[in-house]
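Lecture 7 notes: from sequence to structure.

We start with a single chain of 507 residues. Read the sequence below before looking at the structure.
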Amino acid sequence: MTDNHDPVARRFHATLLQRISKQGSKELKMSLRLFNTLVNDKQDFVPLVPGRIGLYVCGITVYDLPHIGHARFLVAFDVAARFFRFSGWQVKYVRNWTDVDDKIIRRAVERSEDPLALGQRFIDECRKDMASIGVLPADVEPRATEHIPEMLAIIQKLIDRGHAYVAQGDVYFAVRSYPDYGKLSKRNLDDLLSGARVETGSIKRDPLDFALWKSHKPGEPDSVTWDSPWGRGRPGWHIECSAMSQKHLGETFDLHGGGKDLIFPHHENEIAQSEAASGRPLSRYWLHNGFVTLDAEKMSKSLGNFKTIRDLLVHWDGEALRCFLLSTHYRHPINFTETAVADADRRVEYFYETLAKAESWLVQKKFAAEAKPLEDALAGFREAMEDDLNTADALARVERVYHQLNARIDGKGKPEEVAALLATARVTAQVLGLAGRAPQQAILERRALAAKRMGIDSEWVSERIAARLLARKGKDFAKADLIRDELSAKGVDLRDGAGGTDWRVLL
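Now the structure, written as tokens:
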């Protein structure tokens, strides 16, 4: 798929989003309900500013290649932003890069590499993988290292207000100074204290307190330390997101998203420090996606059972991975299996085959008039997405449109009907980030990848197709059938048509 961070690709996707928005509601009549982790229930979404949405999503800590768990949240919130725009909202989507962190520093020291250089390298690699699964660039992609002054300002405000204290060059947030601590994760301080690890020689006043600023330690590279009123050091993880979200969206904004693993402690701490500093709510709605399991086990680097996006792209089309992730509601856990991805791959194949068939049919009918999507189908699609961004239901409704499109062509429907269904099929799928490539090109690219996955030699297939053609011309139909059977046994499906014989890999 296209690299979205290339300037040409950015223009392409800007055009795509404009087209999607035009096909959406001209009047803003969205009845969106979202599951808000803060209240543990679905709520009607009411933005701070009518017609506008500010969305912040915690991004990737860049010390390694992104894995399928990262793909889950990236795709979920990419679709959310696409759908909001399709519905007529003005969206400002902010997704950060954490490029200074304990893990980054450890990995850089292990490799004798500068942490900032390592972070930049993995940002570049992450962008390639994100583009491969159709994740568009966010409107703003801030980096933690570019927001040190904003972090220092918040930390100083917390110290001045009695919510933070300095201890030997470190600065800690005093958890007990913030009475609402635990409101997101629904945890109370007594339970947290009983489970807290007692740190030998700790300089914290309370085991629950967390670091806002970490003093420079021996052996840490100078490139990831900064001057501060409390001495040279670097920020703690939680303060980074508070600084970046507030700079780009304000002290209070509409939506904050991320994986369920971030609810505690990251998002809980983010709320505490942000609201203690500003005296205002940070985000009005909190959205969290479920975990990805591998063969029913939680994915974990420590267990060695995680898969990077790059690993999966060796065998699978990026759209198949995206379709797989969209086939389950974003809040629910999803189990990664090869069978489930193969099912999603067949779905994507069906979409592109149908689009190619419809385009060819309309050309044969010499019908070139512009058609508008069917409003009833768009309404059904919106209904599914407005119910807490239910992509599983929305995807099923999109597939029904493709079924209808096929049925109209096979049933010799009117060109106007086929064109309208084609327009509907395109726009609804593209809101989900699917079926956006030129159909014939996508079919060829996917066929090559499927052949590689199945160990099929494309040149051998071409040779056998040529031999079959010679046999048919010589009226040796028995030999032609044997060649077809030979190819079929290898997983090759032949398709004879007016333009000759084409082939697909049996999925």
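The two ends are 20 Å apart (CA to CA). Keep this in mind for problem set 3.
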